[in-house]
Amino acid sequence: MSVWFAATFRRWASIFAGSLALSTPGLAQPTPAGPIPITVDFAKPQGTMQPLWAYFGYDEPNYTTMKDGQQLLTELAALSPVPVYVRAHNMLTTGDGTAAFKWGSTNAYTEDKKGRPVYDWKIVDQIMDSYIKRGMKPIAQLGFMPEALSSHPTPYRHHWKPGDNYNDIYTGWAYPPKDYAKWGELVYQWVKHSVARYGEAEVKTWRWELWNEPNIGYWKGTPEEYQKLFDYSEAAVHRALPAASLGGPETTGPGWDKAADFLKSFLDHCVRGTNYVTGKTGTRLDFVTFHAKGAPKLTNGHVRMNMATQMNDIQKGMAIVASYPELRQLPIILGENDPEGCAACGVQTNPDNAYRNGTMFSSYTAAAYARLYTLADQNQVNLLGAVSWSFEFENQPWFAGFRDLATNGVDKPVLNVFRMLGMMGGQRVAVANPQAMSVAEILNQAQNQRPDISAMATLAADGHSAAVLLWNYHNDDLPAPAADLDLNLQGLPAGQALVQHYRIDQEHSNSYAVWQGMGSPQAPTAAQQTTLAQAGQLALLTSPAWVSTQQGQAKLHVSLPRQGVSLLRLSW
């Protein structure tokens, strides 16, 4: 076969395969023919690598103090060179502290027979102590409504489980207070107690926030009643600690018009509304929060992700904040930043969530978090963090497909992406890639049509190390050939560099694949559990190796599987 004929045959075969994949359900989109050239220039800084990824959250605060919860908190603290922020619901909910799906309680507030407040911080302190002793920082959520304060307390405790109607969770804890002054005093007492227990210097580093998703069933009041609750909360927080940081409103994704309207109404109130406590104009707001979610679905027998809806939420929310000159430089925290909306909905009841156990979740996370920096730059806003609403579900079946970071104490592949991001810091640097997918293309569903293969890179502040994150993502969870990448690294200040290549794929950093190889046991032996725990850690693809540079340049070749993620860490 002549060279010309072979090249022509490969070219037409590639075109045919692409056409077939675009028109035939159940076939993966083709991998680009030939190596993809990616140039990283460490001498061209693009902005600070803000640790947006060092934020995690969950509905069930009582998992915090349980065995697997304690282990996971330790791992989260260890993977980050900066303090990790943790956000949990139900911090003021009434109950005995027993955890359940989408439920938790602390019994922080009750009343005696004469209606006088009784404060009990025991469970709250156990949760907060778990964070503080690991150097973590709370995003301390003022919510939900204690039973004794609720204007509609019955029924109060819900017993939702996966598969039930989601609206069943919105019970007495979701209602406004019957006495706003008593609510304000509860908030004041919590902040005051925190300062007494942990010290003013520590509590000044926390983030306080009011409620969760008040534009839907989590808040059974009106937008105006939420604004009133915020004013009373703000007065109480800053009466106890003037230097404290308080934010809101934690709405659902602003890509939904009703959520956008609620966010605008809240920001309008903070800027120019009449304060319900002082009667003056405006309310102090220290940071802005809203959520962003994707929308996977089961199609033709496989999961198809939808990152576009998540990016649209972020884009719309940032644009809203930027439209207020008084607020555009305030920090923004994406209070929940996830591929979809229900962490406690497992695969058995929601088969469209089958992406969660394996490498689809990890590659999605790498591609999504990398775009946060682009969106912040484009909108010229101060993005501080993005909460991955994923923790763990204690004493549940192995790999039940919840949106969690670990199962029964064994880390899932997605947690290793955050370990990779924890090795990146300093300055983001320039990356040139002809295959790179823009945010605009993602919004137009380009990830359904072709693989999203790209990179993000950083140079450490000390100038002695660098990192390159690579991903090969596609919205369709279907097999496809690996992509060949030719990396041209420029601006390296040393004559040689030690390269450590970390990898997440079917064979590396993947406890789920190992568990499947065992026959998917629901009662793994002690030896199997040890093997699974080892498989859940971030693994090197190859042994570390030295690479020589010439005039500050080095060339590397990487073969990256579909839904694979690599981190190249260079040090000198």
Describe this structure in words.
The protein is of the alpha/beta class. The chain folds into two domains: 163 residues, Immunoglobulin-like; 373 residues, TIM Barrel (Alpha-Beta Barrel), CATH 3.20.20. The protein contains 13 helices and 24 strands. Strands 1, 16, 17, 18, 19, 20, 21, 22, 23 and 24 form a ten-stranded mixed β-sheet that branches. A hairpin with a 5-residue loop joins strand 17 and strand 18. The radius of gyration is 25 Å and the shape is globular. The N terminus is likely disordered. GO terms for molecular function: hydrolase activity, hydrolyzing O-glycosyl compounds.
In short:
Keywords: Glycosidase, Hydrolase, Signal. The active site is at 213 (proton donor). By secondary structure, the protein is of the alpha/beta class.
- Quickly count the domains: 2
Number of strands: 24
What is the CATH superfamily classification of the largest domain? Answer: Glycosidases
Fill in the CATH topology of the largest domain. TIM Barrel
Strand content: 15-25%
Shape: globular
| CATH architecture assignment of the largest domain | Alpha-Beta Barrel
Which class of the largest domain in CATH terms?
Alpha Beta
Mean pLDDT comes to 94
Structural class: alpha/beta
- Give the biggest beta sheet: 10 strands, mixed
Compute the number of helices. Answer: 13
Kindly report how far apart the N and C termini lie. Answer: 47 Å
Radius of gyration: 25 Å
Q: Bin the helical content.
A: 25-40%
Low-confidence stretches: 1-25
InterPro entries: GH, GH39_cat, Glyco_hydro_39, Glycosyl_Hydrolase_39
Pfam family, one: Glyco_hydro_39
Keywords: Glycosidase, Hydrolase, Signal
Organism: Hymenobacter setariae
